[in-house]
Structure to design on (252 residues):
């Protein structure tokens, strides 16, 4: 990873932070982008590296996506690895009661945001002699159904199809595209979902989720980041168009 130029969307979230920390330790230059200035500043203070850059952007707006991509090029000279990671969980509700504004938010962030990222990073990577690597954060929810979170499940299925098409388009330019598909991860998003599935009894919901995982626990942010690191690195140079669960056996 030494001297690699990396962009992470959703970079001040739990997985994004674990990933950025590992990349910086390995000598990469990293731009993290997220929606809130205060979380980016807190992340910058925590990571404390002169190879870290921050940029506030809303992935739902293509003009802002174009701006973070251009900022990365201006600061780092290009992009070698792109972690198309930003995502939201939405709400827990039956499909017929699901709030339409929340449905739109999930689609806009989890599908359109990923597409806008690909659309703007591809031309930059095509200029690289050795192409690049793009990792899209999907989920085990992209491989199976779960009741009462239909928009989230839909979005995580959608980006797998997006990845496969992008991998084929990128191959002539040595641009590799893959998804990472985590099971429940021990972070803020799962606290939100636990409370949504069992209001006031989130701890019990967590136990239920853990029992659905053969290894009987959630993933850590660092375990997900390790798979992302591998797929971004030259060690995965012949891997593209693949779906990569990190799920403790959940989809087995």
């Amino acid at each position: 990873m030494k001297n690699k130029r990396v962009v992470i969307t959703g970079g001040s979230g739990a997985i994004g932070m674990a990933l950025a920390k590992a990349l910086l330790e390995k000598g990469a230059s990293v731009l993290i982008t997220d929606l809130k200035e205060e979380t980016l500043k807190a992340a910058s203070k925590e990571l404390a590296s002169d190879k870290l850059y921050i940029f506030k952007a809303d992935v739902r707006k293509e003009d802002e996506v174009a701006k973070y991509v251009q900022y990365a090029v201006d600061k780092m000279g290009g992009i070698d690895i792109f972690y198309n990671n930003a995502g939201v969980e939405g709400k827990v509700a039956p499909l017929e009661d699901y709030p339409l504004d929340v449905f739109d938010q999930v689609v806009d962030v989890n599908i359109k945001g990923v597409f806008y990222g690909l659309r703007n990073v591809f031309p930059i990577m095509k200029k690289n002699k050795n192409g690049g690597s793009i990792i899209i954060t999907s989920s085990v929810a992209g491989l199976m159904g779960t009741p009462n979170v239909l928009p989230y499940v839909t979005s995580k299925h959608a980006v797998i199809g997006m990845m496969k098409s992008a991998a084929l388009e990128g191959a002539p330019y040595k641009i590799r595209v893959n998804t990472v598909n985590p099971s429940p991860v021990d972070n803020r998003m799962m606290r939100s979902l636990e409370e949504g599935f069992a209001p006031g009894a989130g701890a019990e919901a967590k136990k239920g989720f853990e029992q659905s995982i053969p290894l009987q626990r959630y993933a850590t942010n660092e375990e997900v980041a390790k798979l992302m690191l591998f797929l971004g690195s030259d060690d995965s140079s012949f891997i593209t168009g693949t779906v990569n669960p990190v799920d403790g056996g959940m989809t087995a």
User: Anything to note?
Assistant: The chain has one domain: 5-183+220-246. Residues 78 and 124 are 7 Å apart (CA to CA).
